[in-house]
Amino acid sequence: MKPRVAKGTRDFSALEVAKRQYVMHVLRTTFEVFGYSPLETPSFENLETLMGKYGEEGDRLIFKILRSGDFMKSVEDPSNPKGSEVADKALRYDLTVPFARYVVQNAGQLALPFKRYQMQPVWRADNPQKGRFREFYQCDADVVGSKSLWQEVELIHLYQQAFQALKLPVTIRLNNRKVLAGIAEVSGVGDRLVDFTVALDKLDKIGKAGVLAELESKGFSSAELYSLEPAMQSFNDVAGSLEFLRNWLAPSAIGMQGVSELEFVLEHAGEAPLAIDITLARGLNYYTGCILEVTANEVQMGSVGGGGRYDDLTGIFGLKDTSGVGISFGLDRIILCLEELGRLPVSLSNAPVALVFSLSETDAPYAYELALRLRKTGLRVEFYPEAAKLKKQFDYADKRGIPFIILLGESERASGQIQLKNLANGEQESLEFSDLVSRLATY
Question: What is the DSSP code string of 206-226?
Fold first, then answer.
């Protein structure tokens, strides 16, 4: 059988890892500038921790883990087991719910508001496509313990600063779940808010007709669909969006509260690249206030980030009145955008700067000692372990992307000079050790 990776997963070469490390370094630096501290949680959680937190569709995408040992032997029909009987754990679907579990589990020990960032892989049993994988990294920043809308403003500015550092122009689309609740209320479907938002969240994928068809299949009447249609339009300017919402949602107290929260955030966001999008729903059930989604301006890639306010998430685990808000960066999509635009740094290779040749069995100990001395100066240097033909060693350096090779034979040891060859232009020079270090350090 031909070996292959599981569908929706990938291997990463040294260069691809370097790209990821570059973006994550920019994000890590930005997180810490804004006062967020790192956190890591386990790759899998108890099934009960995750189920019921992401809506019906999200629950279907959770990778469940079979119980260990010989448990399956006790199942009468292993081909059709009941989920809770054979699985009690699952791979994490996102980083927010495990974060909420951590906060509740450590309540009383954390200084509130508690700000953390987290960069770890998550898993979703989704249909793989461009920019969408079953295993991927999320890079999140969350803060819990404060209901202040200044947290939303700060996270918008965190987005702005991070994407500016990455040289990736974006638009941050903004909405509020209270606005959506208000829309549902004035349209007479307030008791079916989840069905409405789940369908609306697919607007950019299936279009207005598709959303209406899905709502109709959920039992929405023609009159209700007509009332909801204004929610499926977009506006070119913030002022027009706010004016429309104030007029439409005037009969709804919760809707007007959402509009007021939008106005606060917009007033204090300054020059952040914001746009109101009342079609933005973000289908996760735990959002309760402001919701955000980030799209790249110059690449057709879908969202490269998103998040929002969740007032009730820790309450699910027994800790009441602990509001939180968070955002996430789509690492894989960000890299794809930077690749398409040619904006990744050209010097991302983490290959050694030089390869020390092994010219003979007699010369090898001296060549290896030279490699050790160079490494102690902080240079990335590799030693070829066999006295192979020179062509083989040259080919190795070329495949590894190593720019310089170093030759130290009997004549070089006698003269105290070391041969350094630049593989890009073929130039070769004789250098003393200190000059060799200086020369390689400037590359």
Answer: HHHHHHHHHHHHTT--HHHHH
